Automatic annotation (TrEMBL):
Protein's recorded name: DNA topoisomerase IV
PROSITE patterns named in the record: PROKAR_LIPOPROTEIN (PS51257)
Organism the protein comes from: Flavobacterium paronense
Top-level taxon of the source organism: Bacteria
The organism's taxonomic lineage, starting at the top: Bacteria, Pseudomonadati, Bacteroidota, Flavobacteriia, Flavobacteriales
Length: 123
């Protein structure tokens, strides 16, 4: 019984580990996102203001509007979509932050399929 109580208390303490969420620190600035696609690292850099996000990926620049839902969630909508897939808005949610980076979850609005990534703030 004593071992069970200790085990339950340990699990409870571990599960209460709160991640920091200073989302306001990441609303605007210059950022970098690195992702692995088919074993190759792809880097995207972007500048985000309160209302716009200008992203450069593989030498191509694209602009999206930014609509903040709350301090940690926003919607991206491409301003000049080139196809039907690009017309879909993307829901972004900052899960937790560190000194100069944040982990986020994203999906197309209305989709249950979510992916995660880490963004680093450059300035």
């Amino acid at each position: 019984m004593k071992k069970t109580t200790i085990l339950l208390l340990t699990i409870l303490l571990i599960s209460c580990n709160n991640h920091e969420r200073n989302c306001k620190d990441f609303r605007t600035g210059k950022f970098e996102f690195v992702q692995d696609i088919n074993g190759k690292k792809n880097t995207s850099t972007f500048i985000r203001t309160e209302k716009l996000q200008i992203e450069t990926y593989n030498g191509k620049t694209d602009t999206a509007s930014v609509r903040w839902i709350n301090d940690c969630e926003f919607i991206l909508q491409k301003l000049h979509p080139k196809n039907m897939k690009e017309e879909k808005a993307i829901s972004m949610k900052i899960l937790f932050t560190e000194k100069n980076s944040y982990t986020f979850e994203y999906s197309f609005v209305g989709s249950n399929k979510k992916s995660r990534g880490v963004v680093t703030k450059l300035d």
